[in-house]
Amino acid sequence: MYTDSMNDSTNSKSEKARASHTPVAKSPLSQNRINPVQPNKTVEQSNTSQQNTEKYIATDPYFSVQNLIVGYDDTIVVNGLSLMLEQGEIGCFLGYSGCGKTTALRAIAGLEQSRGGTIYLNNQRLTEKNACQSFAVAPAKRGMGMVFQDYALFGHLSVAKNIAFGLNKWSSADKKARVAEMLSLVELTEHADKRPNELSGGQQQRVALARALAPKPKLLLLDEPFSNLDVVLRESLAMNVRDILKRTNTTAILVTHDQNEAFALADKVGVMDKGRLVQWARPSELYHEPVSPFVAEFVGEGAMIDGIIKEGHVETALGNIYRRMEVYDESGQPQYCEYDYPNGTPIKVLVRPDDIIHDDDSTQTALVIGRVFRGANYLYRLQLDDGQTVLSLVASHHNHAIGSHIGILPLLEHVVVFDEKDINATTWSEYDRSSRMDEEV
Ligand SMILES: Nc1ncnc2c1ncn2[C@@H]1O[C@H](COP(=O)(O)OP(=O)(O)OP(=O)(O)O)[C@@H](O)[C@H]1O
């Protein structure tokens, strides 16, 4: 059954207060999904180029972007991007190549001019571009640090001198202490005197991180920082970087096309599609409550099955789905209400591999038509009686051959239902990854 308000991504009073001002794109079957947000700020409409003229109130976020628009020549590349982060939070832009992730990051850094929108950081307005006024704080004055894809280290300088590079206004004693602190933070103290080319890729990446963190940036921007590293190293380094950012309470934004990296590092992930931020949410919310089939496809695996509205619930080949409310009776049992659609309305249902439990004792069975060995698990592709397919993640000691039937227990309270509007917004037929599995025969 669909849980109407499971996706409350707010985790603080101030965030909840702001959420009440948040415009939320809702469809009848996908209510309460938080989309890109607008902080409750009133910008004074004036022609002045002075920044920070408006009053800030206690609930203002540490970092926010409102309706950012960036383009090259006749093409809009970032279209109405809005988001916010609290201090110490890590955000991430996730999306296919060319969707505008790097352009958005560069515009936040001030390296690309915006055509519209406003950026605030730590109670300072950095850009404002609308019909009434236009100004932008210079990149060097934004207090941001950046880690690039290729690290951009100075090959002729030692690790310590690379890290000290942005500290030229510091006293030599302070600079020495800060470099030592950063070396220790990234666990490279014994490599202080080496040149970058004497280090591994992962170590170079950590030098780049230490160099960007040394001047204590108000916001750290990381553009595909792990893309030059091998896959195994990426995830462990992403967790390592998250640990460092959390220890230093650094607010950061990462750009990546790698979902695992995004989930390992970020508190909030924004899925981008053709310049638009489709959903800005916590990783678990993106996975369990994608706002559209596009997000569902991009984040995680799964299959779409058909459903149809009947007497207020959704009938599917896996069973009936009832609409659950965020209301419980005295004994703690959830309450249900009807879907607001006429009988016969077609529905699509997202079923994740973890929604289908293998259970030998179940009377409901499915035919194994494909499987992929993943060490601890098999990802099975299963055909239901009506010919539709779903995926199921099963512990790998359950070794079932292709062509056999296995018992299944669908966890229908976890599935996500999409209405026609959601479906029409995406070419969902391309979605079913089960047909793209490299199967073991
Ligand atoms: N300097 C530029 N001039 C003109 N077009 C550009 C420029 N930089 C980027 N673009 C275009 O803007 C679009 C978005 O590019 P961007 O680099 O932001 O995408 P991305 O999502 O970061 O992609 P990738 O993951 O491949 O780096 C692309 O179509 C790209 O060709």
Name some characteristics of this structure.
5-stranded antiparallel beta sheet; 441 residues; cell membrane; disordered N terminus; disordered C terminus; binds adenosine-5'-triphosphate; ion transport; ABC_transpr_FbpC; nucleotide-binding; ATP binding; alpha+beta
What's the structural blueprint in terms of helices and strands?
Blueprint: E1 2-3, H1 13-19, E2 63-72, E3 75-85, E4 90-95, H2 101-109, E5 116-121, E6 124-129, E7 134-136, E8 144-147, H3 159-164, H4 172-185, H5 201-213, E9 219-223, H6 231-247, E10 252-256, H7 259-265, E11 268-273, E12 276-281, H8 283-288, H9 293-298, E13 303-310, E14 313-316, E15 319-321, E16 323-328, E17 334-337, E18 346-351, E19 356-358, E20 365-374, E21 377-383, E22 389-395, E23 405-410, E24 416-418, H10 420-424
Parallel strand pairs: 1-16, 4-10, 4-11, 8-9, 9-10
Antiparallel strand pairs: 2-3, 2-5, 5-6, 6-7, 11-12, 13-14, 13-18, 14-15, 16-17, 18-24, 19-23, 20-21, 20-23, 21-22
Helix pairs in contact: 4-5, 6-7
Bound molecules: adenosine-5'-triphosphate.
Describe the structure.
It holds the Pfam family ABC_tran. This is ABC transporter ATP-binding protein. GO terms for molecular function: ATP binding. InterPro entries: AAA+_ATPase, ABC_SmlMolc_Importer, ABC_transporter-like_ATP-bd, ABC_transporter-like_CS, ABC_transpr_FbpC, Mo/tungstate-bd_C_term_dom, P-loop_NTPase, Transp-assoc_OB_typ2. The protein has 441 residues and is α+β, with helices and mostly antiparallel strands. It has a domain of 142 residues. The chain has 10 helices and 24 strands. Strands 8-9-10-4-11-12 form a 6-stranded mixed beta sheet, sandwiched between helices. A 5-stranded antiparallel beta sheet has the order 3-2-5-6-7, with helices on one face. Strand 9, helix 6 and strand 10 form a beta-alpha-beta unit. Helix 4 packs across helix 5 and helix 6 packs parallel to helix 7. It is globular. Adenosine-5'-triphosphate (ATP) binds next to helix 2.
